[in-house]
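Protein modeling request. Please complete all fields; requests missing the sequence field cannot be processed.
Requester role: graduate student
Desired output: 3D structure, token encoding
Chains: 1
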Amino acid sequence: MSKERESYFDNAKFILIFLVVFGHFISPHKEDSDALYTVYNFIYTFHMPAFILIGGFFSKGIMKKGHLKKVFRRLLIPYFIFQLINFVILRFWNGTETFTLFQPYWTLWFLLSMVLWNILLLLFIKLKHPAIMMIVAVTIGVFAGYIQDIGSYFSLSRTFVFFPIFLGGYLLSKEHFTKFLRTDIRIAAGILFVGMFVSYIFFFPQEAKNWLLASSSYEKLGVELGQAWFIRLLMYGLMALATFSFMAIVPRRKMFLTHLGARTLYVYLLHGSIVQLFKFSPLYDFVVESGNYFVLFVLAAIVTMILASKPILTLAQPIIELKTHLLQRYMNRKTADVS
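Delivered output (339 residues):
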């Protein structure tokens, strides 16, 4: 059962990281096609929430000694490195960029928010009662939007808005997932998942995209403040339905791509440069001129599999984790000497 559960989560993470890459590939083209915009909005309803839910589920060791230190090391090191890399590239590109650690570039918000979610979790655990914890978290997520200047600085908007999802993952137990993966529930979830997508075609307004991104205040979203809290709660409901429907239909058995789900951090950090460079390729022009967006689906799958491959892992690990085989061998030797 343990192996099956591990395969289940790795399958989910691989599918989700593919959707992240695919979403970024189609983002520049979404306004050229209503169908593509629908796909984009539907993906963004659950792909990051599901990632965040899984992150919360695997944070159950938050109270163990060294857990927070491990989170800091695993997430802040690549955050600092790629924040610097992005700064250098943008400085070279436009010559006016100013380096900052507190305004995460593009996808790096997730790393910073993940660190902050773990810190928040330490505080919320003191509330003890799950219902109270969730009510307080949702209340903060709703009222965060009323802060006029909240946005991408320190990733505060997304941190507060998405924290209830992270907390929900923490509160879910293994038994919850065991019950959740019953055949009848999976069938019902599959029907709901398809039904939600179809409903997006007819009812989901394209301009609601920014609500899914959760990176802006209500004022910047251009909505009446008296209605904003209700819209955010509605978005929480949509995210919950789509996320749990997705998680219910994820394959449980080990597949030929399952092992790649353990390398999603590498895909997440490295795919942005490829997406940006793709805009200067002849294939990009072909997609624009032909409207053949299936090319982007195939390209996203190829990029995801390549970036999650062992050769890329070996090449990128010294940069992403500041870890080399020589350094690791030295650290192991020092540990052995101490013991």
